[in-house]
Design a protein that fits this description.
The protein is mainly α. Helix content is 53%, strand content 0%. Helix 3 (36-65) runs antiparallel to helix 4.
């Protein structure tokens, strides 16, 4: 199943922020009509959908293993510890994606607000950083210079 079809805990916030259903937002992006904020929001939402799916899978696995009608001989502390580690990792990922998406939605300009040009900045001017110093290759032996 595509991430477009999966619901997430932040879909309502996306719909409110961008004024359209999630499927329509993805359609806008596919047509090349999405601004940078929408593109980033949809990317974060896609990651969030996968992370929330992982949380659900582990939760369901733990529930099945500890069901009241389950066989006691099938319980394994090792498996439950493994699932606890997986759950911790999945929740950490989910928390990171929700925080990033919430921050993006909080700080982005409103859809009606046009991007105002900044005084003193010329769109023709581009700054480039100096090239980074060459990094010695891994495993290379330095030889003393005369």
């Amino acid at each position: 199943m595509s991430v477009i079809d999966k619901s997430t805990s932040r879909d309502a916030a996306l719909q409110e922020a961008f004024g359209a259903e999630v499927a329509e937002l993805y359609a806008q992006a596919a047509r090349g009509e999405a601004n940078a904020a929408l593109q980033r929001a949809l990317e974060l939402r896609s990651f969030l959908a996968v992370a929330e799916e992982q949380v659900s899978r582990v939760r369901d696995r733990v529930h099945a293993a500890t069901a009241a009608d389950g066989a006691m001989d099938d319980l394994s502390a090792k498996d439950l510890r493994w699932d606890a580690d997986w759950l911790e990792a999945a929740l950490a990922g989910r928390d990171g994606y929700t925080a990033a998406l919430d921050e993006l939605l909080r700080t982005m300009p409103s859809p009606t607000q046009a991007a105002a040009p900044r005084r003193g900045l010329s769109p023709k001017t581009a700054a480039t950083a100096p090239p980074a110093p060459a990094v010695p290759r891994a495993g290379a032996v330095r030889t003393p210079r005369p």
